[in-house]
Design goal:
alpha/beta, 15 helices, Rossmann fold, binds adenosine-5'-diphosphate, binds magnesium ion
């Protein structure tokens, strides 16, 4: 199908064309006609495959004319993601008179109140701040026709569920509800039955699997050598920009300090930093000023940054689904990307959890020329024989270091 055949309004098609989209992605191909038909949707598709446009294009198309009270609500788990989705709505609605607005925490209320007062058709929000506005009477939900839970499995987990329920209780029952994520759990239907009516299920690609454009491997290493291996990787691998994931805010700060001491331009993003600092880190990284963005899982989901050539898991994620999201920050929109996970002996149980989650073994590799100390990890049966490992390492090494050129922006 082409975009023209999907049934979108001309003003929306014009924006799609202006953005240079030629063909709909599989999730767009499937979801757009169903949203236009009025169906509720549970949609899963791999990271970086255009889920945002899959819901925003048909919604904008259906909203058609401005009314200046929120008729579409999109909930996002982080402020940065809310901003990104809002930016997408702006681009897609460029040739319409529809207006989008955004509210999230960590910044003042003034500008957001003004936006809401002037009136918006589409509201993108993080749950906590939206509830504040609802409580203060600065926004009403009684005209809502569309609710999108982006990163739906996250929005329905224990952390967000109470807020999300409170918000949806304020929305009219007669509405369309759309759930999207790269990691939709099998139990999603029962988890979300209170919010959806006869949802159409769309599943693109193998369930809960990383995008095919990402080459992801494990680097087993002794704990004492982890930092050395990180530096060696950054030294030997050809990369353009890297997101380095840590488990805690503290270890993110420490890793960033370590990288800076070794003359890498690094910025940090985690939830203890002010919104200004977070934005400054992200902007500086996008512009290329920082070469490494050190992050906690606050940046694991959704962020769409071009030219992230490598994701490095400095620490293995605690929740298996975060692995899929973290490594999904590279290899977006058909570009290829590499993801490395540094694995010490203590990480073994978590790695097994991830492998179960994605129903696949992750390849173990060694960095050529790195002076490895012995680690019990190297004795594991599943690493194969030493000889086997060596040949694989060499072959992979070549693929990596002098691998195919990446698509440039
Ligand atoms: P997801 O939410 O599935 O992770 P996004 O919606 O963030 O993915 O989209 C990833 C990237 O793909 C964005 O940069 C977006 O502009 C681009 N994109 C989306 N749809 C298309 C398309 N049909 N053709 C080309 N690029 C697209
Ligand atoms: Mg997304």
């Amino acid at each position: 199908m082409t975009f023209q055949e999907l049934g979108l309004r001309p003003s929306i098609l014009e924006a799609v064309e202006a953005l240079g989209y030629v063909e709909p992605t599989p999730i767009q191909d499937k979801a757009i006609p169903l949203v236009l038909e009025g169906r509720d949707i549970i949609g899963s598709a791999q990271t970086g495959t255009g889920k945002t446009a899959a819901f925003s294009l048909p919604i904008l198309s259906k909203l058609a004319t401005p009314e200046r009270s929120p008729r579409c609500l999109v909930l996002e788990p982080t402020r940065e993601l809310a901003q990104q989705t809002y930016d997408n709505f702006l681009k897609f609605s460029r040739f319409t008179k529809l207006r989008a607005g955004i509210v999230y925490g960590g910044v003042g209320y003034g500008a957001q109140r003004e936006t809401l007062q002037r009136g918006v058709d589409v509201l993108v929000a993080t749950p906590g701040r939206l509830l504040d506005h609802i409580g203060q009477g600065t926004v009403r939900m009684d005209r809502i026709q569309f609710v999108v839970l982006d990163e739906a499995d996250r929005m329905l987990d224990m952390g967000f569920l109470p807020d999300v329920k409170r918000i949806l209780m304020r929305c009219p029952k007669k509405r369309q509800t759309l759930l999207f994520s790269a990691t939709i759990p099998p139990a999603i239907e029962s988890l979300s039955s209170w919010a959806l009516v006869n949802p159409a299920k769309i599943e693109i690609g193998a369930r809960r699997s990383p995008a095919d454009t990402i080459r992801h491997v494990l680097y087993p290493v002794a704990l004492a050598q982890k930092n050395d291996l990180l530096l060696a990787l950054l030294d030997k691998v050809q990369w353009e920009s890297v997101i380095l994931f840590c488990r805690t805010r503290r270890s993110a700060d420490q890793a960033a300090a370590f990288l800076k001491r070794h003359r890498h331009k690094a910025a940090v993003i985690h939830s203890d930093r002010t919104q200004r600092e977070r934005q400054q880190a992200l902007d500086g990284f996008k512009s290329g000023y920082y070469e490494v963005l050190v992050a906690t899982d606050v940046a694991a989901r959704g962020l769409d940054i071009a030219d992230v050539s490598h994701v490095i898991n400095y620490e293995v994620p605690e929740h298996p689904e975060d692995y899929v999201h973290r490594i999904g920050r590279t290899g977006r929109a058909q570009a290829t990307g590499d993801a490395f996970t540094l694995m010490t002996a203590g990480d073994a149980p978590h790695v097994q959890g991830i492998e179960r989650f994605i129903s696949r073994k992750i390849e173990r590799v060694r960095l050529e020329g790195f002076n490895y100390q012995y680690s019990a990890l190297f004795d594991e049966d599943r690493l194969g024989s030493l000889a086997d490992r060596k040949t694989r390492g060499v072959r992979l090494g070549k693929g990596y270091f002098f691998g195919p050129a990446r698509r440039r922006r």
